[in-house]
């Protein structure tokens, strides 16, 4: 069943109004008509609205709420991915896959060794594109919320932003001991917040690692193999999914 997101104010007691680009998608791409059924979410809670289309026009799609489900598609913890800016279109891939895995928020980080440099105009354009990728991935994976793509931060700003989070980790090639990594993951419980720092292609600068340590960010190893920047975040998210996904 096709899944769409709307703003909370578009949801009434019995009906939901869909506007914007999804109208064209429903009307001209999917060619849906009165009586067809869709799923709708507000993007900021666990509710999924099962709906039947009442009418389709050029400006809006009106749907009737048949029933509401608490689907529990989200991870019990809020996972914040602090991603060092990678080259080319790797960020697109990282956003798509980590949203599928359940990330809560993605923060692009300008690190010392990052090759990519974005000015304000380029950043706004990129962030608009990245947010659309996050929305598309959230729809595909049947999530009930759309992860936010935060505005770009410096490494120092990112460390400060993560300061109050329950767990903070930074995969680092010079960190040793899988025992320490396993122990850290075992300590994470449902309902907590987790910050994950991933470096760009060139990795983190030693001063960045020192700053992270000073602020309670724990260096961990993900094994003896060196992982690409687009792989490392997915490895951490996959482990967190395994550890945190409720048993049924």
Structure description:
By secondary structure, this protein is of the alpha/beta class. Helices cover 34% and strands 25% of the residues. The chain has seven helices and twelve strands. It has helices spanning 21-29, 90-101, 120-140, 155-161, 178-187, 206-214, 229-244, and strands spanning 3-5, 15-18, 37-41, 47-56, 61-70, 78-84, 105-110, 148-149, 153-154, 167-171, 193-198, 218-220. The strands form two sheets. Strands 6, 7, 8, 9, 10, 11 and 12 form a seven-stranded parallel β-sheet that branches. The chain has a five-stranded mixed β-sheet with strand order 1-3-4-5-2. α2 (90-101) packs parallel to α3.
Could you outline the blueprint of secondary structure elements for this entry?
Elements: E1 3-5, E2 15-18, H1 21-29, E3 37-41, E4 47-56, E5 61-70, E6 78-84, H2 90-101, E7 105-110, H3 120-140, E8 148-149, E9 153-154, H4 155-161, E10 167-171, H5 178-187, E11 193-198, H6 206-214, E12 218-220, H7 229-244
What composes the largest sheet? 7 strands, parallel
According to DSSP, the number of beta strands is: 12
Low-confidence stretches: none
Secondary-structure arrangement, i.e. CATH architecture of the largest domain: 3-Layer(aba) Sandwich
**What's the number of helices?**
7
CATH-defined fold name of the largest domain: Alpha/beta knot
Kindly estimate the percentage of residues that lie in beta strands according to DSSP.
Answer: 25-35%
- The CA-CA distance between the termini, in Å, is 23 Å
Number of domains: 2
Structural class: alpha/beta
């Amino acid at each position: 069943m096709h899944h769409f997101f709307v703003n909370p104010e578009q949801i009434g007691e019995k009906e939901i109004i869909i506007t914007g680009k999804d109208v064209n998608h429903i009307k001209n791409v999917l060619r849906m008509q009165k009586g067809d059924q869709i799923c709708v979410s507000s993007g900021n809670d666990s509710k999924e609205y099962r709906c039947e289309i009442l009418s389709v026009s050029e400006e809006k799609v009106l749907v009737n709420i048949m029933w509401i489900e608490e689907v529990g598609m989200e991870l019990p913890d809020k996972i914040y991915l602090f991603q060092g800016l990678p080259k080319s279109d790797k960020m697109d891939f990282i956003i798509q896959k980590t949203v599928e895995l359940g990330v809560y928020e993605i923060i692009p980080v300008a690190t010392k060794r990052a090759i990519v440099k974005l000015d304000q105009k380029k950043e706004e354009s990129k962030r608009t594109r990245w947010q659309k990728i996050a929305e598309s991935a959230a729809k595909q994976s049947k999530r009930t919320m759309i992860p936010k793509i935060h505005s770009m931060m410096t490494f120092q700003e990112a460390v400060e932003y993560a300061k109050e989070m329950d767990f903070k980790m930074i995969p680092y090639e010079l960190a040793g001991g899988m025992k320490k990594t396993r122990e850290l993951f075992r300590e994470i419980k449902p309902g907590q917040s987790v910050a994950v720092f991933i470096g760009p292609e060139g990795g983190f600068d030693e001063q960045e690692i020192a700053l992270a340590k000073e602020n309670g960010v724990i260096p961990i190893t993900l094994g003896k193999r060196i992982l690409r920047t687009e792989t490392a975040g997915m490895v951490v998210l996959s482990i967190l999914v395994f550890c945190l996904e409720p048993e049924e």
